[in-house]
Amino acid sequence: MARKSKENSRINKMRTLIIKSVKKAVVATAYNSGLAKLFGSIHSSKLFCVGYHSVWSDKNKKELHRELYSNISIKVEDFEEQILFMKKNNHTFINFSDLSDPNTKKLKKATIIFFDDGFKDILVNALPILQKHNIPATVFVTTGLIERTHFLWTLKVRHIMSRSGLKNFEVEKKILELKKMSMAERDKKIKDLEKEYALQIQPEKLGIFLDWNEVNDLKNGGFEIGSHGVKHEKLIELSGNELLAELSESKKILEEKIGQPVFTVSYPYGRYNIGVEKAAQSTGYFYGMTTESGWNKIDDVLNDPYKMKRIEPNSGDKLTSFAVKLYMNI
Question: Does the structure show a pLDDT above 80 at 36?
Answer without folding.
Answer: no
